[in-house]
Amino acid sequence: MSSSGLLMPRGGAGRLVLPPGEAARRVIGEVLADLHSGDHRGVVVDSPPGAGKSTLVVRAAGELAEAGEPLIVIAQTNEQVDDLIDRLAQAKPELPIGRLSANDYTATDRIKNYSTVRVAAKVADLGGSSVIIGTAAKWALVPEGRWPWAIVDEAYQMRSDALLRVAGRFDRALFVGDPGQLDPFSTVETERWTGLTWDPMQSAVAALLRHNPELPVHRLPVSWRLPASAAPVVAEAFYPFTGFSAGTTAAQRSLSFTAAGFGGGAVDEALEMAAATGWALYELPARHTLRTDGEAAAACARLALRVLERGAVAVSERSPGGAPVTADRIAVGAAHRDQVAAIRAQLGAAGDGITVDTANRLQGREYDVVIVLHPLSGRRDATAFHLEAGRLCVLVSRHRHACVVVARAGISELLDAHPSTEPVHLNVPVRFPDGWEANQALLGHVARHRDMNSTAVSLPSPGIQ
Amino acid sequence: MTSISMGTSRTTAERLATIRGGAKPKRHNARTIAALTRNPGCARRAVLDTAGVDKQRLAAYIDFPARFGQSGFAIARGNAFEAQVKASGAAELVKLLRERLGLPIPEVAYDDLETVTGREKETAEVRYARSRALLLRAAAGEDGAGTLFDHPLLGLDVAGQRVYLEPDLIAFQHEGRFHVVEIKSFAVVDGQADPGKVSAAAIQSAVYVLAMRQMLAEAGHDPEIVAHDVVLVCPRDFSNQPTAVLVDVRKQLAVLRRQLGRMTKVEEMLAVLPPNLCFDLAPDADGVPTRAPEALVDALQTVDARYAPDCLSVCELAYFCRAEARGCTAALGTSAREELGGIERVETALGLAKGELTPADDQAEAATLLRNAARLRAEVLVAAAGAAG
Amino acid sequence: MSTLTALARAEAVAVGQAQRITTVRHLHVADRPLVFIPLSMAGEANAPLAALVGTVPDDPRLLVVPQPRNRDQRFGFAAELAEVLLPYLDSFRGVTEAVAANRGKEVRYRYVDAPQVLVPNSAGIGFVRMFGRSTRFRRTDGDYPVQPSVPLLGQWLTFLADRAEHPGSGMLLAMTEALGLHWATGQSALEDAHLAALLAWIDPADGLSGADAAVVAEDPLRWPPAGPATDPTFDNEMLAPAMAAYQEAVGSGDEVRRSRARGVLEEAVRSQLGPTWELMWRGVSLLRELPVGSRVPGRWAEDRDVFSTFTLYVDGGGYPQPRRDGAVNAAQRLHRLERALQSYAVQRAYDDPLVMADHRLTGEAFVGEVTLADAHRIDDSGKRRVLRPRIQVTTGDVVLVTAGAVLHSPSRPGQKARVVFVTPDPASGRTDVVLELSGGLGRSLSPAPGSVPEVGDRLCYTTLSDSFMPPGEFPSREETPWTHGGPPKAYEEPVEPSVDDAREEWS
Amino acid sequence: MEALERRIDALRAEIRRSVVARDTARTKGLRAELRIAEQEWEQAISDLAEEAGDPPPAAAGRSSAGSLLPVREQVHHALTLLSVPAAPKLVAEVHAAFFGAAAAGGLAAGKLTHLRRDEKRSFGTAPYARPYYLCAALTAEHLAPARGLVAVSTWPLERRIVGPLSPRVDFLTAAVRVAERAGTVPAGSSTLARLVWRFASNIPGALDIAGRPDTVDPVTVIRAAEAERVVHADADRAHRAAAAERARRQLDQVDQLFGNTLRTLPGKVTRRGGAVSRGNPTVQEKTA
């Protein structure tokens, strides 16, 4: 446990003793102090959504490299690798950076622009780089070499076995990630390893801490992404024991529309609600549907397009004068790939540039406005997949301004009738929050942002029993 | 329906007594309370359980006997193991608690709460009072207030009724903190046990934790002094030696609180049921229920069930509900129903797939999917038959 | 469950009989499988009660443990089982074949056939695993010595149980799962775990619908459960009295009485095992009737490889498998299982158009006709000119692949097809997909004959690929990193049977 | 004969069905029928055996089971060795370890439960007619018979009374006694070694590192058990003495030996909680 825990607001905002900027700075200072002290083989930093994880990684990498400590960075996807290189190269224009890549990787434009960045498939070809960055999958193929330091980014998305394969490459490591997001998974179903501290199917951080419980765990206390309207809600539902607060005030962020809503009806009402309060529930009549519920997909698309049509403008600490919410600042999130395909089809050419993706692939991303197709919408019964707290957490924590949840009525009843028959395994730490509880908590909040006059209430609602 | 005005003049308890009829109520215990969490969406089960109807007898009488039953071997083994762990002042348990939870050497006091006065049969009230007195004394942190309490009798309010629970367990207290110890005879082999059995044990233990917390809270103590970690004692590997594992039952506690809270909604459920609804199994002189099976079947059909194949392993009435659900996609399992586009009936799904039925508005998407599937299936099977022939 | 399988279940309900969900058989059925039906004692941790075992339908061997709580009898059962199983395993250690290894630089040998053990259901596999666990660490000396065959049996049972976890392996199969892989019944997957009910749907008795036949099959008095758990009323009403009578007869010292009581006991358990024995062989012949998939022999060859390797290990006096996998072992095994699972799924789809249809329905594959073909197209945009033929495939299937995706065709392994354009035609409901081909075209700038599909060809393209995936690298056990507890200490991963194992307290 | 066997099979099947159906009346009737059929079958079998000239099956076990006298002696031996009230199972194990399980009929644990009732009846008709009686241990709180314990009447009341610490103290005392005796037996049997080991494995510091039955050292066991007993002894002794004093004042001869079962004693009124009055009292069936 680190002393920074003392600064943590318990159960949400409101009790922060320090201004957010100062609280965050202190934690980062403690993290760096722990790194430099050399007292620990590993340091873990839990970072809630938008709490400045990348900033921390870039800063730690820069400081370690400048101190002359050869360093590797292990990320989980190629996109994350490119993101990190982009930010690090900007922050440290002199720093020689190596990008370890697969043979068939072609550097993206944003990487090509940096003269300090070299790309190669072998470590030997990256000599002279102070920092070498690659994916965990790529590092697993590096048979030798040992660096004094590693930074493992998105460590909660990494599986324990992936860490096992790369851990021989470093003496000490900084592990950074968001514990509230989706756990890694395997296509193989087996209980062979459940209960083992080294169960390869758990997250890398879980394995690390079960073997090294004495390692310091820091928590970044402030979300710079989530607005004041969302941080307490997300913190309470998904980070019940640690919490975090918003780095900005309600006054610093606002969303408005330049074009008036003509005949948009329920869609416009939902958007107005979202602009005013940060949340909206766009509720469709109760019905059991296919996963690819056409009506719901259409609603998601309509909402996203309407944000563009109405010329939404976002005012924030970054652009106090307001910036237009362009297509690349809008995302639609869903649970399944076929839902994504259905929504994309509904968006058509008008929605070019709007991101539509599954929760898994939205992890770590950020937008101004996010439309969420609720994973339980239209379902007759919930499965562990649909109830997973991490999935919902990812979906409702991507936005800087507003989140509109699209759902069919009846989710609350569905949750009530959900049987609790989960098997229990010995010696497996219980994961919190429970998906059921988290779903109830979030739904409870969002339901207050449902305009009773909106949605297609004129249609008869069959009701779900 | 017609009952709403009637319902107001009768208390829920009377109403439930009518439903039960002349038969004695089936008693709740930790297992039946735990069972409430298994299919909370089923109104049929909720009504029968709340009224205390003997579902197994009912199911058998209408010719859909449940296949439950416990082997005498399993019962004997369970009792023998429990006796062994509790023998000589629970010597084996003391050893495990010393090893697992660092119980200090002086903490060995053992109070047997099963007998109070040594009589063959003691009333629940007497036993409950003694359990309560001793546990509260321990909660108050009195000197020499005891460490191990065997067979405490606990009480819990279920649907507005007090239910007594007799755990086969030992409540154990140290430094003002209570733990529930649950002794089970399934094996822990190399640190793993049957997850279904652990799950059942966890939810039963949670019932006891809840009951103890309720008792303490009523007496003005902090309920949280009953730990959410229960001590599960099982035989290790293939031997008879006990081993102890801590099981975190926080999730189970949340589930129980939720479902017990829901049970008060039984009034709403009863309000829409016929006022004369009755599942009377009272027997005549020959031991045969006086009501005809057909009448009971009729009564059952007035209460909606929510059948899923999982019910077969947990609910005594499942075979009846399954027969009733014949031809429903639900009977094929929840995932099959989902894959069939949530269409209720099998023949509808097939009709839509073959294009023989015109889909209703809300079936259009499912119909497209089913037609596609049927087309592919037919195409491949015809080709395969052609190749074979 | 896929929509196609769900639809087949719906059809089964309507027709009253199980429906095929594959066009071929996806597993190997041995010429001489060993059928093994274990029963265990209720309430005990995997205590064998009885078993019926054998390779010939009309010659099952009955093994009975008159007092399952008795330790000596339990290992006596193990020794008896070893008497059947070990010679069966040995019987495959005759003829070997040479296999090229290490890119043809080396040769290794494998047996031309391998054992196949069939149990009724997945709980039967669980029994094999647990019985392997309880026997492989037994010692042949010291306290409670067992016969040398017992720990050996334990190693083999553990080996088989591990193989059963391996997707696509056929060395230890559960009959319910083998049948369920090929037929969809009109009941739920949960009910399919009941062997008698499952077979009642696949092969209902004359004049009965599958549903009615299954209800009959569920009556434990007519069709006793296929084990390892016995019916509780059987335990209480038949087995308990028979055991007690046997116990008493033993106590009486009267040999005649003892053997009579044993006869009663054997009759009782035989009555529980016999019906399942018949069902097992009916299942075997139903499976044999299916035409075998073309990639099945390849997977069986892998089984034979693994069997050959393990015989060498056992012959060399290898230690019994550890109780639990160590950190490195666990990661390696997960990697192997994931690879096997993926390749098994792809192979089944490639072998079987009905399985591929699942992927067509979800848009991961499509079947269509080649409507345009430019076999000689040269791509000269790069450093050197390369042959990149293009074809257009027109399909009525749902197409969800997007431009840039790389597809494969089961009938043209080794050739990649990159999606160039996808053009749906809403009017006809058909979609044109333009593909650019690479690989498998020969070495020159003009394609080898037959290497490019021609107009009119009907082809399947899919995102599934069965190309070789190189295995991952792992640290050695001694190099287990500090993040995973460091190198295991000797006592954490005991590989040798310890005195502790012999000393376990028994009832 | 075959018809009889078929009938037995059919009856068993019917019983299984009626058990599942919870049809108790029918099950009872069927069981009675089955018993008769089985007796007929037994008879037929022995008739057959006699016809064939086989000797009639030995009736071993029956003859000795009729008398409880030897069992009584055995229990007395074992309890005297242990010197503390003990559960029937332990009594049986101690007897088997030291005196062998030779006695015909054995010391089946179940039998001992009946024994206590037998003894009480005997004492009631002719008090002190026997040199000792197997009697109850008494709970310190209510002076009621303690569940599942047997004691000897010649012991002082203090020893027969059990308070909360007594089970542990008695367990440790028994461990000492058993280890002492085991130390005097040359090359003790493996049953004895296992008994000592079972005690030792629940006492801190009583086992060596190997922890095996064949390496248990009685002296170590005694030392470890004594060390722990000292921790609890004073409190336990005081508690027992106070309760014994109360028993001598309040109980008659019979109750002093067999426990008070008729009333709750004055001075120890059980508090009746307010929460007890509602609902139907339930004694839950055992969950295995």
3D architecture notes:
The complex is a heterotetramer of chains A (465), B (389), C (507) and D (288). Chain A has 465 residues and is an alpha/beta fold. Chain A is built from 16 helices and 18 strands. In chain A, the strands form 4 sheets. Chain A has an 8-stranded parallel β-sheet with strand order 4-3-5-2-6-7-1-8. In chain A, helix 8 links the parallel strand 9 and strand 10. By secondary structure, chain B is of the alpha/beta class. Chain B contains 15 helices and 8 strands. In chain B, the strands form 2 sheets. Chain B has a 6-stranded mixed β-sheet with strand order 1-2-5-6-7-8, sandwiched between helices. In chain B, strands 3-4 form a two-stranded antiparallel ribbon. In chain B, strand 3 and strand 4 form a beta hairpin. The N terminus of chain B is likely disordered. Chain C is of the alpha+beta class and 507 residues long. The radius of gyration of chain C is 28 Å and the shape is globular. Chain D folds into 2 domains: 50 residues; 191 residues, no CATH class. Chain D is 58% helix and 6% strand. Chain D has a 3-stranded mixed β-sheet. Chain D has 288 residues and is mostly helical. Chain B: This is Secreted protein. Chain B: It comes from Plantactinospora mayteni.
Spell out the blueprint of helices and strands.
The complex is a heterotetramer of chains A (465), B (389), C (507) and D (288).
Chain A: H1 20-37, E1 42-46, H2 53-66, E2 71-75, H3 78-91, E3 97-100, H4 109-112, E4 117-120, E5 131-135, H5 136-139, E6 147-152, H6 160-166, E7 170-177, H7 204-211, E8 217-219, E9 222-223, H8 231-238, E10 245-246, E11 254-257, H9 266-277, E12 279-284, H10 294-309, E13 312-315, E14 323-324, E15 330-334, H11 337-347, E16 355-358, H12 359-362, E17 367-373, H13 384-387, H14 389-395, E18 399-408, H15 411-416, H16 435-446
Helix pairs in contact in A: 2-3, 6-7, 8-16, 9-10, 10-11
Chain C: H1 3-15, E1 19-20, E2 34-40, E3 48-54, E4 61-64, H2 71-90, E5 96-101, E6 106-111, E7 117-119, H3 122-136, H4 149-165, E8 172-174, H5 175-180, E9 183-184, H6 189-192, H7 195-202, H8 210-217, H9 232-252, H10 255-289, H11 296-315, H12 327-351, H13 353-361, E10 365-374, E11 378-379, E12 386-387, E13 390-395, E14 406-408, E15 416-425, E16 430-438, E17 458-462, H14 499-503
Parallel strand pairs in C: 2-7, 7-8
Antiparallel strand pairs in C: 1-9, 2-3, 3-4, 5-6, 10-13, 10-17, 11-12, 13-16, 14-15, 15-16
Helix pairs in contact in C: 2-4, 3-4, 7-8, 9-10, 12-13
Chain D: H1 2-20, H2 24-51, H3 62-65, H4 69-82, H5 88-99, H6 109-125, E1 134-139, E2 145-152, H7 157-160, E3 161-162, H8 166-184, H9 190-200, H10 218-250, H11 253-258
Parallel strand pairs in D: 1-3
Antiparallel strand pairs in D: 1-2
Helix pairs in contact in D: 1-2, 4-5, 5-6, 5-9, 8-9, 8-10
